[in-house]
Design goal:
Number of strands: 4
Order of helices and strands: HHEHHHEEHEHH
Oligomer: single chain
Distance between the termini: 10 Å
Number of helices: 8
Helix content: 55-70%
Strand content: 5-15%
Amino acid sequence: MEEEISLVELFNILKKRIGLIINMVLVGLILSAVYTFFIATPEYSATSQLLVNRTQETETIQRTDIDTNVQLINTYSDIIRNPIILDPVIDTLSLDQTTEQLKNEISVTTAENSQVFSLQVTDDNPYEAAEIANTTSTVFKDNLNSIMNVDNVTVISEAVADTNPVSPNNTLNLAIGVILGGMIGVGIAFLLEFLDTTVKDEKFIVDV
C-alpha cells in the first residue's frame, strides 16, 4: 500500500522544520549580501550619441537617404568595435587593456528607423567609462572618411560620468539569495522528514 501525503501533512512538515528553513533563508541572504557588497565589482555605464547625417548636400532629405543612413549604422557598429578604431583609443588614453577587452566594454544600440545611435561603455570606473565613450566617438568620427570615404557622422551628445553603478543589482541579488535559501531549506526539510524512520503516530502502527 502506497503511503499518501496530504497537504496538511506537508504543512506540518514545513511547520516542524520552520527554524531550519528560516536559517537557510538567512544564510542565503548573508551569502548574497557578501557577494554583492564585498566581492562583486561595481560596473558603471556612460553613453554618447551620434547622428548619421544625410549623405549629400541637398535642399530636401529624400526617404532613400534616410534608409541608407539607417542601414549604415549596422556597418558603423562593426567599425567602432574594430581594432582600427579601438587601437588609437587605447593609445590616446594609455589604457591598460587589450583590444579585445575594450571591445567587450563597448556596445552600440539604435532605435528602429532612427538615424541616431548610442555608443555605450561599461567600466569599473565611471569617469573612465565616459572618457572611453567620448574618445571612441571622436576617433570614429575623425577616421570614418578615410575608412569608408564618407563624412556623415556627428557627435550630438557626449558621455557624462554616472557614479550610480548599473551592476550588480543589489535588490535582485538579495532577492535571489532569499529565494534560493528558502528553496534549499524546504528541500532539506522534506529530505530529513523522509529519512526519518521513527514511529510518528498510531496510524503507522495500525497500518503495519
